[in-house]
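[Solved] Which block belongs to which protein?

Original post:
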Amino acid sequence: MAASRILVVDDDQSIRTVLGYMLQEAGYTVETASNAEAALRAVAESAPDLVLSDIKMPKKDGIALLADIKARNPALPVIILTAFGTVETAVEAMKRGAADYLTKPIARDDLLMTVAKTLKLLRLEAENEDLRETLRERFRFESIVGLSPAMVAVFDTLRKVAGTDATVLITGESGTGKELIARALHFNSPRRERRLVAVNCAAIPQELLESELFGHVRGAFTGAIRDKTGKFELAEGGTLFLDEIGSMPVHLQAKLLRALQEREIERVGGDGPVQLDVRVVAATNRPLATLVSSGAFREDLFYRLNVVPVRIPPLRERTGDIPLLARHFVARFAGEAAVTLTPDALAALEGYRWPGNVRELENFCERAVLMRASNRIDAASLAAPLAALASEAPAAPGTTLPDIERAAIVAALRAAGWNRSRAARRLGIARHILLYRMKKFGIVPEDESGAD
């Protein structure tokens, strides 16, 4: 890693020399300037990582130099050097954007500690910005895999509401990617610079959920030995994602309804409301309308949450997305290895109903990459794992072991141009066994030109 570049600005030659020596001895690259004009030229030409500037200089002082630097490069940190007795001026400089200040005479340890701390904060800010940019890129709607008409309709709805504060209710089976959609909503909204706070209402004991959501004050109940900030307050200015909202106990639903209507909460044991600016996105894999009918969910809360309904279709309703998703997952888990899925492997994956939806497909692709015999994954290598999945999954139309076996055989035959010998070799079985199973499953050749 290259040494950090530090620009020392002071009209006193001896101070420039001493500071430069201490910094160079610590491993920094140092450049010096005797006045503000020379400092601005150095900032433009040398791009330092940090500026140390005296306040009292002829013509243009350190405060004016600070203003010029911040106008040109707001991210460049400036540490102000001030004589003893002029700390008030240094404090004013910090109000104007200085990173810190040092009082002359400057001790070596104070200098190096302040410089190291400032550069560390600069690196952390850069890393945080990189992370935010990575998150923005990852959760762009265009980055979510899916080209089926059903998913295109979902993306269209999300784009329309992302820039608003409208409450969104995401519904869908387990494993369809409801939290991914919630995160995409947040990172494509004006609230992206603030926090996204996620709460799984089904994973928190009912007696603790109220405190988790709304917080509590010390002494509110047995064991409340200190104040606790709830998830609503943690999400101030950002987004609160309430997953598995259908599991919320009825006695808390009224309090949630008030929070949505009035934009305020009450801490457990608190003595007054707390105003908040929070967008709420909820998700459930349970039919809320049915829960309303049975009295397990408040009707008024349902309508308050269901301002913008977004249904994520199960994978069996968008089988055309399976090859896209499978290639995406395989590429991710393979890293730098050039692992590919053959056409017959993709056809076999399409033939399975994936009751666990995208999450199940993702896990399956990870196992397939880890257990592969080569960088070319074909239907034969997937037949046994798919059959195992089918035997473990709840019985449903199209997910039984014969269904999976038939799909694997058809995929192998198509990939082999309906040549039985080549298809049998792909499947790792004898040709006569393949012929028997074709007869058993009523598989009729689509093209006799390559048959043998």
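(Second protein starts here: sequence line, then its structure tokens.)
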Amino acid sequence: MKPITQYRPNRPEVTGRFRTHLIRGAAGSFVIQVGFAGLAFLNSILLARLLGAGGYGAFANAMAWISLLVIAASFGFGTLLVRDVAIYRSRREWAAFKGLLRFSDCFALALSAILSIIVFAVAGCVFPATDKEAMRLSLWVAAPLVPLFALSSLRESAARGLEHVLRALLPGMILRPGLLLTGIVAIYLFWPDLLSAPAAMAVNVCTAAIALVAGEFWLRRLLPSEVKRIQPKYNCKSWLKAAFLMLIYSGMQTILGQADIVMLGAMRSPGDVGLYAASSRLAFLLVYVMMASEIILAPIIARLNGKEEKERLQKILTRAVRIAFLSVLPFGLILIFAGGNILLLFGHEFMAAKTALLILAVGRLADVAAGSGALLLGMTGYERTVAIIFSGAALENVILNALLIPKYGIEGAAFALVISLVGAKLLLSMFAVKNAGLCVTIFGTLLGGKPVRIGA
């Protein structure tokens, strides 16, 4: 089998059809991302108001732990599936296609089962105090989410590799948060005495199971008929090597987004965790447009990894980052100058997080402006570079959190995230120009230079 990084499409894409596919896919992805952002935001407000800062902090802390564990359980196979499924499909290598699907499922299931067991032991050690009982119970209840989320993410990635973006995203981004919202409202209306952070997490586990079943059903319908009939072929060594590098950079990227909440939970009160989680949720809304474009761009970048497609790819990347930045700039300015008023949606006690929100909003705007360097490098064979950069950034983030949280609280956590995240994104942008010959920032080629062949 040819090395994946040497893949070249057999013929150029038809410009009109390609543009239509990109626009429709990006638009559909954006609509789903907006729907997910809206549902997640409503869930956050509802949980914050019903549970208070402490209860919401316990829920958010457990979800931060689960997010970290799911990355480990998936072992980088999510990103690998997006890239390799697109390539195997183009080459019609159906045996390797089926083998990768089966191997990634078995590996993730075994690893996630082990991690779920570890959660039970860790929760009791990290949160032994009586005043953190809600955190401990929420984490115990959340343990089954590790295999459920890991397997769901693999199905989503495989469907994205097949370029069925909308069906890939619907179970996890619309169905699950929609059912969670419905379940929380039902408990509040019919069993209000049972409402607590662990109860909300139990509902989350049930909705994740339903979303997994839906994702499995849709993926089976999307698979080419050849995949269903052929015997699988396994290239376990090469898959594990590539997945491990992708695990490092995706895992370190997740640490950048979750270490602040996890470390706040260990070093400060549940109330502080709740305040910070609310401001972090608001600031994270600024990256949803960029995330929507990346979902559709990932398999396209893998297919356009060729000299004859480079100028088109540069135009696509520049347009995508500029649209993303200009789309969120007005809301970002609102968060910067009037974020305290928006925090009132969560409750009056959340006004204490307005300074943290200002810091995070500025950082997220810079994040969007720096573009999708990690995506480009990961999809074009430079996983090692991304892994090294994110490893350094994650280590920096943990050290800064340890230094700043004890003295500055949630504002210290916000500074730690912004400094490490923006620094990593700038380095990725520089290496995208150096290694891939493409500029991913809002400046495009305005600062000089032109696209060159990847690997040149």
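Accepted answer:
You had them paired correctly. Confirming on the second one: The longest helix spans residues 15-74.
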